[in-house]
């Protein structure tokens, strides 16, 4: 690919049901973790703070019927506006549109005998609308929307019972959308579990001594579920392409000090590579087993688990990329800045976003080469963008040169990675229409090409407006990135 992107490159965008749909109690849907995540307007943007989710906070949220402080309950009302919103994606020339299905809509009771037909009819129409506009649907099966009933009935993914419930859910989707959907993602950013166990695994931290062990046990169950889902998908339709996905935390050594290099290696392994070694490589790596031994972690496995994981690896590696960080063996005197889910050491060579996330386009090229060299599987960039505060002008325009600059610099480095020989098959920019933030539940943190007139408390006309970046991305797709 010495001349850039291939002609069939999949340009597009990505949304999540739990941040866009709203309609949290419509047509039989039950509550999810995002529905009980309270918005805290006093959050300091300069440092990452995750509000702790407990059974007490869940119970309090269930008792509060008003959605004012629970923004993901309303989202941007995509449940009712999807036709016009998808039409706007098509206007930009999207080749692919990534969306997620809400498990709590399809099986609102968690272990229902039959799926919720009203939910499936909604997703039927969403997928048909995507296809009608000439776009490829890419469906995420589980995207940070853990059903509360699966926590209260089974204790989340710590319970192996969820493997069978997940496969039942997958079986419904794979059969229902056979011939319509061929690109799938089993679990969104599966490596987020270390910092966001409740919304990824449904495992609540009650102060138990073995919480870390419970997290890795839940992850093992997800690894098995993903492998078995891959097997099932290929059996139902050999054309299905099943991807794993991580949020890649690209890490550099703070200095050329050997101890810093070792720290970088350790962080890369347990933040990123462990999850990909299992799902794309098909094995538990030696360094993870050493980590478990040193931490006193024991993972219970069925006799055939490792064989299943080895036999049914992902067809492609999916990843989100937003920022990078540094690692140091002596970090006490180094400055912290905000990052994706966690605070990170600040890199003096990089600028940061309004939320403190370090902007590193070259890191994307580095990471793509790093990952492809290790797994030799196609890579799909499933998320990439920048959260920013946008201003809607009186004439309905939104000028966002900062977003264009961020995306252009990252896509240019992605192109260079393709020219390096990395097999990148597609790019779905995160949040092409403004949605509620996953981490902070605020609307002010906007990613989109399309402005939604709605504030943090749900006030506004809800009208959609094309930003300057809308036209920039439309031109980028039309020229297949040749004008970068």
UniProtKB/TrEMBL annotation:
Pfam families: Glyco_hydro_1 (PF00232). One of its GO terms (molecular function) is beta-glucosidase activity. Keywords: Glycosidase, Hydrolase. One of its GO terms (cellular component) is cytosol. It comes from the Bacteria. Belongs to the glycosyl hydrolase 1 family. PANTHER family: 6-PHOSPHO-BETA-GLUCOSIDASE ASCB-RELATED, GLYCOSYL HYDROLASE. This is Glycosyl hydrolase family protein. It comes from Culicoidibacter larvae. The lineage of its organism: Bacteria, Bacillati, Bacillota, Culicoidibacteria, Culicoidibacterales.
């Amino acid at each position: 690919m010495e001349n850039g992107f291939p002609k069939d490159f999949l340009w597009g965008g990505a949304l999540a049901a739990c941040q866009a749909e709203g309609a949290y109690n419509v047509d039989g849907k039950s509550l999810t973790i995002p529905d009980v995540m309270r918005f805290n307007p006093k959050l300091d943007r300069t440092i990452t703070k995750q509000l702790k989710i407990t059974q007490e906070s869940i119970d309090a949220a269930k008792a509060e019927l008003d959605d004012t402080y629970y923004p993901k309950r309303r989202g941007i009302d995509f449940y009712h506006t999807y036709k016009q919103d998808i039409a706007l994606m098509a206007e930009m020339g999207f080749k692919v549109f990534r969306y997620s299905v809400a498990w709590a809509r399809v099986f609102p009771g968690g272990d229902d005998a039959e799926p919720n037909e009203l939910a499936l009819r909604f997703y039927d129409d969403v997928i048909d609308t995507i296809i009608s506009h000439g776009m490829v649907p890419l469906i995420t099966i589980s995207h940070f929307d853990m059903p509360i009933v699966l926590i209260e009935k089974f204790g989340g993914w710590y319970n192996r019972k969820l493997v069978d419930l997940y496969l039942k859910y997958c079986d419904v989707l794979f059969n229902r959308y056979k011939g319509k959907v061929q690109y799938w993602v089993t679990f969104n950013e599966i490596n987020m579990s270390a910092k966001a166990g409740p919304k990824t695994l449904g495992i609540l931290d009650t102060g138990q001594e073995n919480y870390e062990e419970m997290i890795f046990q839940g992850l093992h169950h997800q690894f098995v579920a993903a492998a078995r889902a891959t097997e099932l998908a290929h059996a139902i339709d050999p054309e299905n392409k099943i991807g794993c996905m991580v949020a890649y935390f690209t890490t550099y050594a703070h200095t050329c000090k050997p101890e810093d290099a070792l720290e970088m290696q350790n962080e890369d392994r347990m933040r990123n590579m462990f999850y990909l070694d299992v799902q794309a490589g098909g094995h538990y790596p030696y360094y993870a087993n050493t980590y478990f031994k040193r931490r006193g972690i024991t993972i219970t496995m069925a006799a055939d688990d490792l064989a299943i994981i080895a036999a049914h690896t992902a067809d492609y590696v999916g990843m989100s990329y937003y920022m990078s960080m540094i690692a140091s063996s002596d970090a006490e005197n180094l400055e912290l800045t905000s990052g994706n889910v966690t605070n990170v050491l600040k890199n003096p060579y990089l600028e940061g976003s309004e939320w403190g996330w370090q902007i590193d386009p070259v890191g994307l090229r580095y990471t793509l080469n790093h990952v492809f060299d290790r797994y030799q599987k196609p890579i799909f960039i499933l998320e990439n963008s920048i959260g920013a505060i946008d201003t809607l002008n009186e004439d309905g325009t939104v000028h966002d040169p900062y977003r264009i600059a961020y995306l252009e610099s990252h896509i240019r480095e992605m192109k260079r990675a393709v020219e390096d020989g990395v097999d990148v098959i597609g790019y779905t920019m995160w949040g092409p229409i403004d949605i509620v933030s996953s981490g902070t539940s605020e609307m002010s943190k906007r990613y989109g090409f399309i402005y939604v007139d709605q504030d943090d408390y749900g006030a506004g006309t809800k009208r959609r407006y094309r930003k300057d970046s809308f036209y920039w991305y439309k031109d980028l797709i039309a020229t297949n990135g040749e004008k970068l």
